[in-house]
């Protein structure tokens, strides 16, 4: 989507998209997933009350710091963590889904009704941020297209298979929850899987929060693992500090990029309100991705002669654009404060662009300062420009 905006709408909006992703979406997502991990990790020790807010945030910070170290130390460690904790995630989900199937076979369908259904149109629109957050990341597959064999054939297949699989698994998981829990119980629980396990699994209930905590731990690792590619792409285009495109000399890891994401994530941990963080992330994400999808019909109209190895029917981008307008404009009415904060954070990229990117003829002393800071950080992190980029 960054490349689409760069080609279609120019460097300024492409930078704003990059700024939103690097300064809001990625670190905020890390903070959300880390908070979820810590809530599930400590919930077992506070079964009858809410865990202390400070304890939750400190544990989330520890999670981020440990995984930042792992990603800076050795890529093989990071990939091993990702593999192991992905299996834990799937195992937990399959256990819950299997339990739900058993419950349905027993006729446990009393919670599937329209009682207490939300009728406020604006609140329904806002709820899409939380629902769609679970599916956020489908476009990250494009980040590895350079390493993908036969991308014209395999990329659409990978996206289609992953989206369908995740949709089926998540829907069945929610169905399983409602075979046992009522709507107020689901809405009132900080850790729904823990509440679900307590009701059905007896002394083995501790397994589910353990598996979910492992799942979210792996989720934080995955975001840190992939974020460096975005920083690298921006730095190669001259739209991010050059230091973020560099790798550690001995470990060959993108340490500056990983540490930048981790540091920003720790800043977002100053708020432990997961839903507020999701609203900030959701607004910024869907505005920027909607803008990228808008580029598809625009380029189809302006440049019909361009070769398009992967081509979709215009029906899909048009529907996506309409949905994006719905889930970004309507919530402005119900949560103007959160939306205003999201817009404000996005707008912080405007002066950054004009001062550091658009302003080419900087005074010599400013260039020396920037160069000096870059060299100082290089020495601090012991990093260099990758050979492929320097050549």
Would you kindly provide a written description of the structure presented here, covering whatever features stand out?
The chain is an all-alpha fold. The chain has 17 helices and two strands. The protein has a two-stranded antiparallel ribbon.
Note the main attributes of this structure.
single chain, about 400 residues, mainly alpha, two-stranded antiparallel sheet, 2 strands, about 0% strand, globular
Mean pLDDT: 82
Radius of gyration: 22 Å
Number of helices: 17
Helicity level: over 70%
Detail the poorly predicted runs. Answer: none
SS elements, strand count: 2
The coarse overall form would be: globular
Order of helices and strands: HHHHHHHHHEHHHHHHHEH
* Biggest beta-sheet profile: 2 strands, antiparallel
Question: How far apart are the termini?
Answer: 27 Å
Strand order within the widest beta sheet: 1-2
The class by helix and strand makeup works out as: mainly alpha
- The fraction of residues assigned to DSSP E strands is under 5%
Brief overview:
The protein is mainly α.
Topology:
Layout: H1 2-9, H2 11-43, H3 53-73, H4 75-105, H5 121-133, H6 151-178, H7 183-188, H8 192-200, H9 207-236, E1 247-248, H10 255-268, H11 274-302, H12 315-329, H13 331-334, H14 336-347, H15 349-358, H16 364-381, E2 383-384, H17 387-390
Antiparallel strand pairs: 1-2
Helix pairs in contact: 1-2, 1-11, 2-3, 2-9, 2-10, 2-11, 2-15, 3-9, 3-10, 4-6, 4-9, 5-11, 9-10, 11-12, 11-14
């Amino acid at each position: 989507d960054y490349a689409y905006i760069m080609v279609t709408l120019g460097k300024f909006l492409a930078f704003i998209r990059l700024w939103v992703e690097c300064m809001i979406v990625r670190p905020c997502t890390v903070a959300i997933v880390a908070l979820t991990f810590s809530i599930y990790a400590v919930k077992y020790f506070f079964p009858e009350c809410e865990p202390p807010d400070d304890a939750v945030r400190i544990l989330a910070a520890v999670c981020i710091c440990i995984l930042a170290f792992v990603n800076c130390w050795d890529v093989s460690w990071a990939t091993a963590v990702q593999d192991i904790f992905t299996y834990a995630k799937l195992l937990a989900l399959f256990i819950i889904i299997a339990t739900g199937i058993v419950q349905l076979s027993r006729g446990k369908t009393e919670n599937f009704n329209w009682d207490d259904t939300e009728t406020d149109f604006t609140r329904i629109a806002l709820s899409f941020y939380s629902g769609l957050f679970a599916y956020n990341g489908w476009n990250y597959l494009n980040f590895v297209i350079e390493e993908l064999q036969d991308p014209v054939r395999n990329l659409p297949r990978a996206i289609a298979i992953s989206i369908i699989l995740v949709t089926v698994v998540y829907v069945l998981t929610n169905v399983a929850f409602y075979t046992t829990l009522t709507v107020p119980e689901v809405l009132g629980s900080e850790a729904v899987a823990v509440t679900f396990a307590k009701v059905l699994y007896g002394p083995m209930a501790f397994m589910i929060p353990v598996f979910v905590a492992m799942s979210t731990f792996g989720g934080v690792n995955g975001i840190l693992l992939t974020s460096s590619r975005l920083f690298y792409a921006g730095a190669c285009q001259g739209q991010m500090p050059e230091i973020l495109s560099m790798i550690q000399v001995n470990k060959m890891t993108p340490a500056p990029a990983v540490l930048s994401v981790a540091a920003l994530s720790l800043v977002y941990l100053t708020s432990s309100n997961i839903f507020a963080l999701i609203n900030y992330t959701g607004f910024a994400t869907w505005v920027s991705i909607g803008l990228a999808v808008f580029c598809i019909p625009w380029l189809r109209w302006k440049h019909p002669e361009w070769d398009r190895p992967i081509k979709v029917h215009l029906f899909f981008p048009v529907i996506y654009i309409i949905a994006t307008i719905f889930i970004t404009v309507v919530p402005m009415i119900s949560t103007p404060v959160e939306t205003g904060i999201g817009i404000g954070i996005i707008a912080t990229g405007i002066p950054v662009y004009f001062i550091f990117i658009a302003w080419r003829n900087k005074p010599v002393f400013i260039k020396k300062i920037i160069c000096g800071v870059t060299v100082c950080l290089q020495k601090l992190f012991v990093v260099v420009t990758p050979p492929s980029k320097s050549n």
